[in-house]
Write a structure and sequence with these properties.
3 helices; alpha+beta
C-alpha cells in the first residue's frame, strides 16, 4: 500500500483533502484515489484514516496535465 500512517509534522508541507485537491486537477475524488494507488500522487493517511495529498505535487500534476492537454 503506498500510504503512510499520517502526514509528517513538517511546517513547510501543506496537505490537501481529496475535496480540495480534486477541483484543482479537475477530476473526481475517486480518480485521486486511483492515481495514489498507481503512485502518481503521494498520499498520506491521518490518524483517522483519511487521505491527504501534498499541495506541491497536486499543483505540479495539474501543470503537467495542462501541458499535455495543450500539446494534444
Amino acid at each position: 500500500m503506498p500510504c503512510q500512517s499520517k502526514p509528517p509534522e513538517s511546517p513547510s508541507v501543506v496537505w490537501l483533502t481529496p475535496a480540495e485537491a480534486a477541483p484543482l486537477l479537475k477530476v473526481e475524488t475517486r480518480t485521486l484515489r486511483s492515481w495514489a494507488n498507481a503512485r502518481r500522487l503521494t498520499v498520506a493517511r491521518t490518524l483517522g484514516g483519511h487521505r491527504r495529498y501534498r499541495e506541491a505535487e497536486v499543483h505540479a500534476l495539474a501543470a503537467s496535465l495542462l501541458t499535455e492537454a495543450e500539446a494534444a
